[in-house]
Amino acid sequence: MSSPWTGDQPLYSIGAAAKIIAVPAATLRAWEERYGVIKPVRTEGAQRLYSRNQVEQLKFIKAQIESGVSAADAHRLLGEEIAAGGAPAATAEAEDRNAPLILIAEREAYAAEFAEYLLRTEGYAVSIARDAHQTRLLFAERSPALVIIDLLISGGAGFRLTGELRAESEIPILAVASLDAASEAVTLGASAFLRKPLEPLVLASTVRDLLGTSALARASRQPVST
Less packed terminus of the chain by CB within 10 Å, N or C? Predict the structure, then answer.
């Protein structure tokens, strides 16, 4: 059985986990019910929540199946790895304190979870704000390297928030929205605009463009001390 949530990892809904791994949510439910190796925690409403370690373990399962291994054997292999203490672990479990911090101001929990996971795998540190007030507080407290703002957060306050943050700082702002608001966002001071739903590769490449490159690539170019 997969290790339970340890409390120091984010939790992902089954929808977010399914999108990250690129398999249907029904497949994740079927794997759990049939093989019982990866068991997500449940909310009081019986909603499945997956830890980052479990998402990595699901990636292992999918990779095994894509290589020609049966689902049953893939789960057996994972179970053996877990028993031996060598189960796949999260790719960015230990966050580099020097990693650029990205502040995500996002009203939708699913979108925030997905963006957080993607950016952490790129090597960035991430903070999430779920309303405009929390965004202002985290912006002042943590001095992020980049802010991603859902323009419709707090009933559309993201437009005003973009203007306020631009007036305070030259930190890059990536505005996102489910409507075509590129012109207004840029006028208010956004450095770039993306239309939702966000494509993973497009989001990652846009962040790299705004910050220069990924945090992992930056780290790999650091001189090695002797």
Answer: C
The answer on 107 and 69 residing in a single domain is no
Query: Of 52, 83, 114, which residue is a domain's last?
Result: 83
Helix (H) or strand (E) holding 48: strand 48-51
Task: Report pLDDT for 206.
Answer: 94
SS3 category, 128: strand
Least confident of 5-9, 42-46, 128-132: 5-9
Strand partners, 103: 127, 147
- To the question of pTM greater than 0.85 for the whole model, the response is no
In a domain? residue 154 = yes
| 77/111 same-domain check | no
Overall domain count for the chain: 2
Residue-wise pLDDT tens digits, 38-78 = 999 888 888 888 887 888 899 999 989 998 889 999 999 99
Q: Which domain holds residue 19?
A: 11-83
Distances in whole angstroms, Cα of residue 218 to Cα of each of 86, 116, 225: 28, 19, 16
The distance of Cα 87 from the centroid of its chain, to the nearest Å, equals 21
66 and 164 both lie in a single domain: no
Q: What is the DSSP letter of 226?
A: -
